[in-house]
Fold these 3 entries.
Entry 1:
Amino acid sequence: MFVAPKNVDLLISEAEKEALYLKLVEQMNKDFNLANEAIDFPMSISPAELKLQLHEKIYRLIQYKFTEYLNLLYIIDVSEEQIKKLDGSDLVLLAEQVSFLILKREWQKVWFRNKY
């Protein structure tokens, strides 16, 4: 049964433990490209760098390309309910929280594909 990790670090360590970290990176590249928001995480990217680059990308999308940001969330299939619960008063914090929701959803896809 899938249990969503409580934070980014736990998610990434679980992905690495199950040898699915590269699949997670592939899935993120694929979904970002589907949303026409090309982000090309190299397969050699470290977890810390992945977290940082994703956060920066989401921050820029929220600030400068909001429609594309919403499209990305739709394509990745991030829960609208979870997004609405976030406090948007601090953009840096919001981008960090949305990055985690994106990683969590991408991890869920990779995990299910691996198990079933």
Note: Residues 8-110 form one domain.
Entry 2:
Amino acid sequence: MEDESIAVLVTGAERRLLEPETRRDPTALEDLLHESFREIGRSGRLWTRDELIDVMTGPDAVDVQSAVVTGEHVELVAPDLALLTYTLDADGMRSRRSSLWRIAGDRPRMLFHQGTPLGPHVG
């Protein structure tokens, strides 16, 4: 698969994870998040796949009301591993994001994600 095709797959999958319909659907989340998925949240907490799915689909889940993704960059770090970085403006908060995606055929699955909050004037 060409780098450009991988970039399209990975950025599309990442954007799906920002959609309220996906975030409320445990099956969709299980499909997009690799079994060994881990996330370092804004607070520094380490989340497992099951913990994150429980929170995202639970009664106290918070939907992203507005999400603007800019500066997407995909780098192939191994034949089946892509690193996606971008800036996210969501619900009045700005952060730099990075995600590591494993590609199996045409199926990307996120292995790792981290978001780092940005101040209002950080470039």
Note: Residues 3-116 form a domain with the Nuclear Transport Factor 2; Chain: A, fold (CATH 3.10.450.50).
Entry 3:
Amino acid sequence: MTDEPKPPRPPSLKSETRQTNWRRTNLPKYQAHLAVQRALMSGALEKRGCEVCGAAKVDAHHDRYDEPLNVRWLCRSHHVKLHHYGEDMFPIGRQQAD
């Protein structure tokens, strides 16, 4: 028996709610969100202030979902603006997990 950590199980998406349907349709995005949640709980990733205004209450924004722990911390207002107006809205350098 090895002491290697088990890879995360794929999410169980059995219901037919709107949220579950989004997760099923956008599985790479959902898995990236789950990876951030796990990393935050384990301490492998730490929230930082909004990279635009410094607000403490932030969302994790993925520029690339194939790099799930490479996130930009943005307050909800700046996160919504970034999605609405495009990735070039806040060209501040991305912060990576250590």
Note: DSSP finds three helices and two strands in the chain.
